[in-house]
């Protein structure tokens, strides 16, 4: 008799022992639901207090982080451009700024991380790395201004990216480092925003990312691995930036990504794993990008639902896959300008200019609820989940996800949302971001003007 049917006939039979993952999941669910239960039972005024974004406390926490950053502390020594990005981007999302001296010191510090042969390292004198290059470039864009933007040696940076480029289309993170989808995204993102993207950098990138889309529909870090939210955002954003997003199986990607938002209201990073605040951006960001691709998705679904004769199959497959190695012409879709290869330079810019109001593919209010009630430390800073400690990485990505939610219904990427779309008091409203680069929109625009009109 199977375990199932024995339990049906003999209720006293011992239930199967839960797995460790099941126990962890129940524990998180119970903590999250206790919070939601409390929230549901308190008066409206107390509910508003619980939903308030603790701006002052977050600023205090971030300012403390900045003070640590300027003094030498070694534990995160190879990560300092990342710390700069997480902290300065969070401050920018809150609509705040820092004093000129601190900005100046940060520009000087990042300059000392800049390798004479291009790219930024995790600290002065270390080996340049594409991920810390992305963090440094996004920090300098976030700081903005002539000194900051002009400090980036774009020619040398281009040389560094070319040296990291692999014949399979991927990029190495650093000399002899790993090749993965993160490296592709960080390389293509900086090349795109700095206006140094060209055919050589793009060559075969689409093939590489395509080889990482799994049977589930999400994108893995490398071929043969498991689909994961972090890599899915990276892979999807890269495919958009190189004009090849139509080559992905988008309906399957939508299907995988939307089901990563669970009953806790936040997102998990992969199937059967726990909810985590940082996926508010990685998964929420991927879904927000997919929201902008509806015409390509509809086209792919239409093509897939047609009944083909045997001779039609190869032709249809060709049109879904895309035929050449990059930027095939498939007509113009919202914000992606899938026209011809030369157009990839303006994809990032068109993405926000060709914006149209569209319904989000995720539950935006539910995600805001998870971020504000479960991921927010009332004393400042944000975190993975209740019971975890706040940190700058989660602060950055929870706030980035919150901003995406707040503007998810907007007609333009920065048009102020209606009050009912912002959970909690309207003062919770953050600055809008460019969803492909994750920098605050007005800083992106300044950088675009600088790098696209100067050269
Ligand atoms: C731009 C850039 C550098 C992007 C990085 C993207 C990113 C967050 C990748 C995630 C890496 C990963 C496999 C985490 C799994 O951690 P885990 O097993 O602890 O977490 P999980 O249980 O939630 O999967
Ligand atoms: Zn996390």
UniProtKB/TrEMBL annotation:
Could you tell me the EC number(s) of this protein?
Answer: 2.5.1.58
Read off the Gene3D superfamilies from this record.
1.50.10.20
- GO cellular component terms, A-Z: protein farnesyltransferase complex
- Keyword Zinc on entry: yes
What are the required cofactors?
Zn(2+)
Give the UniProt family note. Answer: Belongs to the protein prenyltransferase subunit beta family.
State how the cofactor is bound: Binds 1 zinc ion per subunit.
Q: What is the protein's species of origin?
A: Glycine soja (Wild soybean)
Function according to Swiss-Prot or TrEMBL: Catalyzes the transfer of a farnesyl moiety from farnesyl diphosphate to a cysteine at the fourth position from the C-terminus of several proteins. The beta subunit is responsible for peptide-binding.
What this protein is called in its record is Protein farnesyltransferase subunit beta
* UniProt KW keywords: Metal-binding, Prenyltransferase, Repeat, Transferase, Zinc
UniProt region (Disordered), positions on chain: 1-20
Q: Which GO terms describe its molecular function?
A: protein farnesyltransferase activity; zinc ion binding
């Amino acid at each position: 008799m199977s375990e199932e049917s024995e339990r049906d006939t003999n209720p006293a039979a011992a239930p199967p022992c839960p797995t460790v993952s099941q126990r962890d999941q129940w524990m998180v669910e119970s903590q999250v639901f206790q919070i939601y239960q409390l929230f549901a039972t308190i008066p409206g005024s107390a509910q508003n207090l619980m939903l308030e974004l603790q701006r002052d406390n977050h600023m205090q926490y971030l300012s403390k982080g900045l003070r640590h950053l300027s003094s030498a502390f070694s534990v995160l020594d190879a990560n300092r451009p990342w710390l700069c990005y997480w902290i300065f981007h969070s401050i920018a999302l809150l609509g705040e700024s820092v004093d000129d001296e601190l900005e100046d010191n940060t520009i000087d510090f990042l300059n000392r991380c800049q390798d004479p042969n291009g790219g930024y390292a995790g600290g002065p004198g270390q080996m340049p790395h594409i991920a810390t290059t992305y963090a440094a470039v996004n920090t300098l864009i976030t700081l903005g201004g002539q000194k900051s933007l002009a400090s980036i040696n774009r020619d040398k940076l281009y040389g560094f990216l070319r040296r990291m480029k692999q014949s399979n289309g991927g990029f190495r993170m650093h000399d002899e480092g790993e090749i993965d989808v993160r490296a592709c995204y960080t390389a293509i993102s900086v090349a795109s925003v700095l206006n140094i993207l060209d055919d050589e950098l793009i060559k075969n990138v689409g093939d590489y990312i395509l080889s990482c889309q799994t049977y589930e529909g999400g994108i893995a870090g490398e071929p043969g691995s498991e689909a994961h939210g972090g890599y899915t955002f990276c892979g999807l954003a890269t495919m958009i930036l190189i004009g090849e997003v139509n080559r992905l199986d988008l309906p399957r990607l939508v299907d995988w990504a939307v089901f990563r938002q669970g009953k806790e209201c936040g997102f998990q990073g992969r199937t059967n794993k726990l909810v985590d605040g940082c996926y508010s951006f990685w998964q929420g960001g991927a879904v927000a990008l997919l929201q902008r691709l509806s015409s390509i998705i509809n086209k792919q679904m239409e093509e897939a639902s047609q009944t083909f004769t045997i001779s039609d199959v190869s032709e249809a497959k060709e049109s879904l896959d895309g035929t050449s190695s990059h930027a095939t012409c498939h007509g113009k879709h919202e914000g992606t300008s899938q026209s011809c290869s030369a157009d990839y330079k303006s994809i990032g810019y068109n993405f926000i200019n060709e914006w149209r109001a569209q319904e989000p593919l995720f539950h935006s209010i539910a995600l805001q609820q998870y971020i504000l009630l479960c991921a927010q430390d009332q004393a400042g800073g944000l975190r993975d989940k209740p019971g975890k400690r706040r940190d700058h990485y989660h602060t950055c990505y929870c706030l980035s996800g919150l901003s995406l939610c707040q503007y998810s219904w907007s007609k333009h990427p920065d048009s102020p949302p209606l009050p009912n779309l912002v959970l909690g008091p309207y003062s919770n409203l953050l600055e809008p971001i460019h969803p492909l680069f994750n920098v605050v929109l007005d800083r992106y625009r300044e950088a675009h003007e600088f790098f696209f009109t100067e050269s």
